[in-house]
Design a protein that fits this description.
Strand content: 5-15%
Number of helices: 25
Number of strands: 16
Largest sheet: 5 strands, antiparallel
Oligomer: single chain
Strand order of the largest sheet: 1-2-3-4-5
Length: 598
């Protein structure tokens, strides 16, 4: 795909409101010229997350996360750069232009846009048919009996597919769409005789949207017993991949981010009913299994997921399968003990159903507790063979927890329930613990990406800065705040003065002396974050020629001390003596600069 033009990127940046975008994830309050709030990237109790509304930048002084408005959308929504620009352009009504592209690539992009338009037209058609046709009367009655209001149903775009075989087929062809396009998005399918007919008929239609609110496909609920499967999803297409989508994510994202918690249920009507009841951070899986792609979509927004899946065997199995996936994303998984035979939508019909559901979510237990209890609950403890089988199932679960108080408590619980010695249970747990091949290697830092690159892996935890790094960052930030004087100091700074990251930042500032925030190096995430931090420091911290001189002299002192040490190791005592005299003179200059600064 051709790159978005730099003019379009700048237009989107100018139009977008970073406080509105970030405000969906954390409350921001004005502090001078900046906005401050709790960091949406890590847990904290006092605000250290700063947003610059003018330059559209953010920086957390606690965990080190930093970037511009595009970087924030990339991180929180798991998008590449082009996708982030497109998402913001859609949101703020900016028409983007692209560099001249290969005719074949342009044709593919235009074809995809037509298919997207076809899906949106179909969604509008189904929605209109639900509310305007006599045929959909029973569907409206059913939805009302489920306690769903017209306002909620319209908000989620719920519709109805006519019983006729070719309504969508004919209407779409009249609008200029080809049969091949209808088949490509799963709206029609081929009959045994070779013709085409509507895939969805006599069904309540739930449009399935991505995080940006674009329709990708549909789920249809049957209205008659003779229609086969109660629910039918769109066929797998280039748009629709069931394993990657969470129903309602476009409506739930902001509420999830603010609560730092997502509630996962199974059904379309469950999501709508819960949103209607005020539990807005709720999404649904496409079936009973939650997949790695779905966990990834949630991990960009929240650190805790509560599984409120139906309390049948399929729902329980799904909760167990997800543990390993979430562990890789460092997410906390909890399980709400849903009563058998009652789904969330049905619970909302009860007089105090919403309060009951919230209580179940708030009192949800750890997934490991649920797994252990699941095994113990089906074990015949009077049978030695059954107890041994149960222990074989439980040991790997406990081993996955790692050593700690929680593991020890569960070991005692299992030993008591199976009438075994705790030492025996612990021995099986230790035997089930996988051997490690060495220390974990943290993923390489990286926020910036090319326009077509995949989202970067999570950044490692922020490392404590050395005194030299703190000093060099202070000086480089002042070079941004006072560009004329900064040009002089950037010319003086060499590799011996700076750390590796500091040298990279200095090189970047030499190449972009004016408005560095508009030229963030997206191909180098770590450098982009550092430049963002320096720009924010330049806005927030005082700068003066005296302070710049003092910081430079202190870096120069460190350079001299390094050369003195190296000369001594070489046995070059004459050079060491000469450098020592330079250092003595420099120390006097530093003392003078400190007196002037005070």
């Amino acid at each position: 795909m051709a790159l978005i033009t730099s003019d379009s990127v700048n237009q989107v940046r100018d139009a977008a409101d970073i406080t509105e975008v970030i405000g969906a994830y954390t409350d921001l309050k004005r502090a001078g010229g900046q906005m401050m709030g709790l960091c949406p990237f890590h847990d904290e109790r006092s605000p250290s997350f700063s947003v610059d509304p003018t330059d559209k930048l953010y920086h957390c002084f606690g965990c080190g996360e930093a970037g511009d408005i595009f970087g924030f959308v990339m991180e929180k929504e798991g998008l590449g750069f082009s996708e982030a620009v497109e998402a913001l352009a859609d949101r703020y009504g900016v028409e983007i232009q692209r560099e001249q592209e290969d005719p074949r690539a342009e044709a593919r992009r235009q074809a995809r846009q037509r298919l997207q338009q076809l899906l949106e037209r179909a969604a509008s058609y189904y929605a209109s048919y639900l509310w305007e046709s006599r045929e959909a009367g029973k569907a409206r009655e059913y939805l009302a009996e489920r306690g769903l209001t017209e306002a909620s149903l319209r908000d989620f775009g719920v519709g109805y597919a006519p019983s006729a075989w070719d309504k969508i087929l004919v209407a779409s062809q009249r609008a200029g769409f080809r049969v091949e396009e209808l088949r490509a998005v799963g709206l029609v399918q081929r009959s045994q005789k070779g013709g085409e007919y509507d895939r969805f008929r006599s069904r309540i239609m739930f449009p399935i949207r991505d995080a940006r609110g674009r329709t990708l496909g549909f789920g249809g609920r049957a209205m008659r017993d003779d229609q086969g499967a109660k629910y039918v999803n769109a066929a797998e297409t280039d748009f629709f991949h069931k394993s990657q989508i969470l129903y309602g994510l476009d409506r739930a994202r902001a509420a999830m981010a603010r609560a730092n918690r997502a509630v996962v249920v199974e059904g379309y009507t469950d999501v709508i009913a819960l949103h209607q009841a005020g539990v807005e951070g709720t999404v649904a899986v496409m079936g009973t299994a939650i997949t790695p792609d779905q966990v990834k979509a949630l991990s960009g927004v929240v650190s805790e997921v509560v599984l409120a899946l139906d309390a049948d065997e399929a729902g329980q199995a799904a909760m167990v399968r997800v543990q390993g996936v979430a562990g890789e994303r460092r997410m906390r998984l909890r399980v709400a003990a849903m009563p058998k035979g009652v789904d969330p939508a049905e619970m909302m019909l009860e007089e105090k159903g919403p309060e009951r559901f919230r209580a179940l979510v708030d009192s949800s237990g750890e997934l490991t507790d649920f797994q252990v209890e699941l095994v113990l609950g089906k074990t015949d403890v009077s049978s030695p063979v059954a107890r041994d089988q149960a222990l074989a199932e439980i040991a790997p679960i406990l081993a996955s927890m790692g050593e700690g108080a929680s593991q020890s408590e569960l070991v005692r619980k299992v030993a008591d329930r199976l009438d075994l010695e705790p030492a025996m249970v612990l021995g099986r747990v230790v035997a089930s613990t996988p051997a490690t091949g060495g220390p974990e290697v943290a993923p390489a830092p990286g926020r910036g990406r090319s326009q077509d690159a995949e989202p970067a892996p999570p950044r490692p935890a922020k490392q404590e800065l050395t005194s030299r790094e703190r000093r060099e960052r202070a000086l480089l930030a002042m070079c941004i705040a006072l560009p004329e004087q900064g040009e002089v100091y950037l010319g003086k700074l060499g590799e011996a003065h700076l750390s590796g990251s500091g040298q990279a930042a200095a090189d970047f500032l030499r190449a972009h002396p004016k408005d560095p925030a508009s030229h963030l190096p997206r191909e180098n995430g770590g450098l982009a974050a550092l430049i963002t931090e320096l720009v924010m420091m330049a806005r927030e911290e005082p700068a003066s020629e005296e302070a710049m001189e003092l910081n430079f002299l202190l870096l120069e002192q460190r350079r001299l001390e390094g050369e003195i040490e190296a000369a001594g190791e070489r046995g070059d005592y004459e050079r060491r003596a000469s450098l020592s005299r330079e250092r003595a003179a420099l120390v006097e200059r530093i003392a003078h600069a400190q007196r002037v600064g005070s």
